[in-house]
Amino acid sequence: MTESRAPNVLVLGVGGILGEAWMSGFLAGSAQATGDDYRNVGAFVGTSAGAIVAAQLAAGAELQRPRSWAESGGGDGPGDRPGGVRAAMGRAGRLYLSAVSPLAAPALNAATPAGALARAALLASIPTGTIPLDDLHARVTALRSRFDGRLRVVAVDRATGRRVVFGAPGAPPAPVPDAVVASCAIPGVLRPARIGGREYVDGGVWSPTNLDAAAVGRGDRVLCLVPTALLGGAPALPLRTLAAGWRLTTAVEAEAARRRGATVTVLAPDAGARAAMGTNLMDSRPRERVLDEGFRQGRESADARSAAGVGSA
Q1: Residue 313 and residue 94: Cα distance in Å, rounded?
Q2: What is the pTM for the complete model shown?
Q3: Burial level of 112, CB count in 10 A (0-12/13-18/19+)?
Q4: Which of 301, 309, 307 is nearest to 26 (CA)?
């Protein structure tokens, strides 16, 4: 029997409705092909859409499979609920990247006081989002997920511009549903989450993956999924510029983890998944097709997890 190459650290990045679908499909397909159970991973770091998937796994819930691959009739998964958060996110789709793009620019300097101040100033200049994420809160509450030492959820303090990693040592206390909503609260579009008297917004404002928030060391095997890497092939220059900045941020974070002795695999949607997703990651209409493509890619990529770099991007 060969030694398992299953990751013991799972980092799940930003990506909207379709990014969540791709990550869920990918992990479900990979699990079917390898027999690995990603619910048993030793550590999770989730940002925005990735926070939803990470909370689901940490709670021990099964990831949704596409209907075309389901082994039984099943019924709709939590991502299939009509209305609610999906409808709200769909309305926000055109505003998503325009809201996050100027905030992502200083990502590499975010850890410095000047970087945090610049980010806080930009956040202050954006009107407060008004669309609530009540449906998402209810969805995560139903999971009964807890911060058990494995789960970390990333958000940004709106007033200070600093990153907060809920679930990490020294982080403000918060229920998982509140933290996930905070991580998904797109500035200027979705209502900020209020935790302990402070307002928090989308963790993607800091980094597309926040891979450096994972506590890793020698011998750790990290799998990082980056749905937004597909934007590198977008026709619009602003999207390509945003993708390039995010790609550099992820590369720097991954290299830092490798210097600490971890093996890091960073994967992006392949050509089939990119075609299904398009560039509006908040458009729920192709969700089932994206879930299907992610599942296929997960099955096909099961033997390629030790490769470094950004998948097929």
Answers
A1: 23
A2: 0.86
A3: exposed
A4: 301
**What sign does the CA torsion over 217, 218, 220, 226 have?**
positive
In this structure, is the dihedral angle defined by the CA atoms of residues 190, 194, 195 and 200, taken in order, positive or negative?
positive
Alpha-carbon dihedral 169, 171, 175, 177, rounded to 10 degrees: -110
Q: Are strands 221-225 and 9-12 parallel, antiparallel or unpaired?
A: parallel
Q: What is the rounded CA–CA span in Å between residue 304 and residue 151? A: 25
DSSP classification of residue 206: T
| Residue whose C-alpha is closest to residue 14's, from 286, 195, 297, 281 | 281
Buried/exposed 137-172: b ≥16 CB within 10 Å, e otherwise: bebbeebebebeebbbbbbbbbeebbbbbbbbeebe
**Could you read off the pLDDT of 60-103 as tens digits, one per residue?**
998 888 876 654 333 333 344 434 445 555 555 555 555 555 55
Q: Say how many Å lie between the first and final Cα of the chain, rounded.
A: 32
